[in-house]
Amino acid sequence: MYDVAIIGAGITGCSIAYELGKYNVKVVVIEKENDVSVGTTKANSAIIHGGYDPKPGTLMAKYNIQGNKYTKELCKKLDVPFKQIGALVVAFSEEEKKTLEELLERGKENGVPDLEIWDQKKLREEEPNISDEAVAALSSPNVGIVSPWEFALAMAEVSVENGVEFKLNTEVKGISKENDVFKIETNNGVIEAGYACNAAGVYADKVNEMCNEKTFEITPNKGEYYLMDKSQGTLVNHVIFQCPNEKGKGVLVSPTVHGNLIVGPDSQPSAANDVSTTREGLDFVRTKAVKSVPGINFRESIRNFAGVRARTKMHDFQIYEDKKNKGFINVGGMESPGLSSACAVARDIVKMLGNSGLSLEEKKDIVDERHIDRFKHLSHEERAKLVEKDPAYGKIICRCETITEGEIVHALHRPIPATSIDAVKRRCNAGMGRCQGGFCGPRVQEIIARELNIPLADVPQDRLGTNIITGETKDGGAK
């Protein structure tokens, strides 16, 4: 019997787990995949938004502003890659300049600091590679870029250190309530909890309807992206947006915290599990992106990917305790700025649980910091000490990203261990470079099999069932 069950281990679920880990409550996170952060959290623009876009008075506006500040604090404390590089919303006409004025006033009303509109001269000085057709831009210096999956992992790992349990490969099939206890039926048996937090992302409406009346509907929306090689990573200095429209914030061009350039997304209705990329979608992204930055060399693309957003018709977060089902809290519709807002939302979820009757006694001793040894960022002296302590750190496995065997082994034995090649990638960047694992992938697979003591053929690429080795190609040799 748990005090709180959190359904979903994306950025929202991991944020709630992190905050609840500070209290003497028994918490479990239920996730249908074999790792955390493998849904929308790993496939988005990786932007910590400024807060000038949401309509004043909405939950999006409230939590975006709070989350922008809190995210920066947490990333520093938990050793998560984060850079505050600022954003520019670019106008290409006099009509769009009016949109910048509207965003400026909206941002001021929301409490966004230091907003200003740059003229063409200032814009060109700060962004030499911007299109000549750009006439002005709204500058929001509080915008940052982050590694979203590492952010979620960091909070999840620290929560485990503080006693939170994670049940992976556990899919929720049904929910009922008996004698003030939620009985959550899964493929691995029934989990009982006094309170339930629904953070199931694109499936949050379906989870809500397992035990409540229908109050919101998720309309999944897919966005496709280009990830460019690091040769393109310095093309722009800020996150470059175009003026937003009814489909969202539009196609952006932005550096990443790992030194690449990300371009996208488009916006199209989709199935909740549709992460395919299409010629049409990518062509649209490319056409829109070169309007902002004509010099993007798309021959330097190293990967295309797609993510699915959990949109609702209300275009606002759905955060509330069910009126007829005390103790069941929905955290749905966490579309953009969901990543920016999640950590701030989590603090209020804890308050909501307390107001609903959960006893919240703070722990005297908690783990609240984390440090990761990233070999390529260490000095020569620091590297030498690390190799002396563990020789595995002296063996480079991923040449593109300078990732060592020691880092990979560490990823396999962290509080939430990696169990797939992509899970290793999310923890230490092995396979994230130009060759996308073409060189290091087989070696990473061997290390996983060795460290976890499993057959090589049982190591998946990512989710369960994504096996790389399916059998021998030849049966040569004597039997």
What is the count of β-strands? 22
Q: What is the CA-atom radius of gyration, in angstroms?
A: 23 Å
* Number of separate helices: 12
Helicity range of the residues? 25-40%
Amino-to-carboxy terminus distance: 54 Å
- Uncertain stretches: none
Question: What does this 3D model show about the protein?
Answer:
This protein is of the alpha+beta class. The protein has helices at 11-20, 59-77, 94-110, 120-126, 148-161, 204-208, 279-292, 338-355, 380-389, 405-411, 421-428, 441-452; strands at 2-7, 27-30, 47-48, 82-83, 87-91, 116-119, 136-140, 144-146, 165-167, 172-178, 181-186, 189-198, 219-228, 239-242, 252-255, 261-264, 268-269, 301-311, 318-321, 328-332, 396-398, 403-404. The strands form five sheets. Strands 1, 2, 9, 10, 11, 12, 19 and 20 form an eight-stranded mixed beta sheet that branches. Strands 13, 15, 16, 17 and 18 form a five-stranded antiparallel beta sheet that branches. It is globular and about 65 Å long.
